[in-house]
Amino acid sequence: MAMRSPLAAYFDPLKMEAGCDEAGRGCLAGPVVAAAVILPPDFNHPMLHDSKQLTEHQRDILRPIIEAEALAWGVSFISVEEIDSINILQASFLGMHRAVEALALKPELLLIDGNRFKPFPGIPHECIIKGDGKFRSIAAASILAKTHRDERMAYLHKSSPQYDWNKNKGYPTKAHREAILQYGITIHHRRSFRQLPGVEQGTLFS
Predict the structure, then answer these.
(1) Per-residue pLDDT for 172 more than 50?
(2) Which range (53-57, 69-73, 201-205) has the least confidence?
(3) Owning domain of residue 112
């Protein structure tokens, strides 16, 4: 008997569902990336799980499988400028809206990872805390959001290698924070984030 994902296949078996998730919300640098995925009702992969529970290698294996077998998928990037303009929570909502808009099919229900969401016009939604560890479509969205964002941060690393974005992906690791104190910030850092090292001392901004 083939092994199956431990996650639920759907929330409502009578509706076409799109799972939605984002990656990079807690980072000091780089975009927020959101994804929306509509999976076939019978989609099954034993490795499928919340992206945080998988290794980078496992996520890289699953990404092309999801993109090939999904009925539809969409990924969106919310820039640092947009994050600084509207705040990170609203940027996350905007990212998921844009990912839904990018879908080739219109879902009948959105499954949102988390406890808050800005309603998408014309499509009802369900907010599910830790949904990426409960439903396959949300897990698939978490994997696409994470892998697409990691790919972007690896690209940005080439022009700013001192920050080790190929390793920390822009998250506030000790090494990343120390690099900011030493080299300052780049155009890829989120200036509105008060946890940036040096902000409280006024050393990074004029």
Answers:
(1) yes
(2) 201-205
(3) 17-157
Question: pLDDT tens, 7-42?
Answer: 999 999 999 999 999 999 999 999 999 999 999 999
> pTM of the predicted model, to two decimals?
0.92
Split into its structural domains, the chain has a count of 1
* DSSP-assigned letters across all residues of the chain: -----SSBS-S-TTS-EEEEEEE-TT-SBS-EEEEEEE--TT---TT---GGGS-HHHHHHHHHHHHHHSSEEEEEEE-HHHHHHH-HHHHHHHHHHHHHHT-SS--SEEEEESS--PPBTTB-EEEETTGGGTBHHHHHHHHHHHHHHHHHHHHHHTT-GGG-HHHHTT---HHHHHHHHHH---TTB-TT-TTSTTTTTT-S--
CATH of the domain at 84: 3.30.420.10
